[in-house]
Amino acid sequence: MNASNNGGTLYGLGVGPGDPELITLKARRILGSVPVIAYPAPEQGDSLSRAIAAAHVPDGLIEIAIRTPMTPGNFPADDVYDRYASEIALHLKENRDVAVLCEGDPFLYGSFMYIFARLAGEYSFEVVPGVSSLGAVAAVAGRPLVSRNQVLTVLPAPLDEKELERRLADTDAAAIMKVGRHLQKVKRVLSRLGLDEGAEYVERASMTDEKVLPLAEAPDGGAPYFSMILVRRVEEIEA
């Protein structure tokens, strides 16, 4: 834990990819001890991270829904994070610890990092890693991410098509995250590189409505934000 004399402690809690049983013991313990929790949420509707943690959240906590626009070009919304960081800071100044929930791991494309960047220099903080979507997707697909000396490349699907192709052309294995509306673009790139055969498509890994499909069978109409494609050049794995 980073130590500071300025009020309460800011916790970044990774709550895992969706299955409530994948929350760590440490995150569960902290959830049971803090007076304030905050969590990302869409402008309208429920928070996924809050839903994942629901069974471990005691009654009576102060709750802050960090409602942010998720439309292309509007994320991350600096003014929104400025406002919520200020709200969280009010509690920290009053010596109230605040746990910010984050799907997966807080520092792997996690929204917590935007709050962290604004408050970590002034207050004590502790980041609790969570089971990431990378591990969850590999597990439900039954596919090792890498073996031996292979290199894993993690790529966001919103990358420009040419940039995505350039990076995929020079890697042993890749996890393509945040597929969403970019599914058809990713399919085109993988087809041109001859990497589509054997690629695996996974959406909502570890959740009750998860899907695991060969990429060729992935829906043509797009994919959820919480979806990923695993690509790996063939390499024999030692028994």
Short description:
By secondary structure, the protein is an alpha/beta fold. It is built from seven helices and ten strands. The chain has two domains: 123 residues, Cobalt-precorrin-4 Transmethylase, domain 1; 99 residues, Tetrapyrrole methylase, C-terminal domain (Methyltransferase, Cobalt-precorrin-4 Transmethylase, Domain 2, 2-Layer Sandwich), CATH 3.30.950.10.
For the structure shown, list the relevant keywords.
239 residues; alpha/beta; Cobalt-precorrin-4 Transmethylase, domain 1; Methyltransferase, Cobalt-precorrin-4 Transmethylase, Domain 2; 5-stranded parallel sheet; 5-stranded mixed sheet; 10 strands
Structure explained in plain terms:
This protein has 239 residues and is an alpha/beta fold. It folds into 2 domains: 9-131, Cobalt-precorrin-4 Transmethylase, domain 1 (3-Layer(aba) Sandwich); 134-232, 2-Layer Sandwich (Methyltransferase, Cobalt-precorrin-4 Transmethylase, Domain 2). Helices cover 27% and strands 22% of the residues. It has helices at 25-31, 48-53, 78-93, 112-119, 133-141, 161-168, 183-193; strands at residues 9-14, 36-41, 62-67, 98-102, 124-128, 152-156, 173-177, 200-203, 211-214, 227-232. Strands 3-2-4-1-5 form a 5-stranded parallel sheet, with helices on both faces. A 5-stranded mixed sheet has the order 6-7-10-8-9, sandwiched between helices. The termini are far apart.
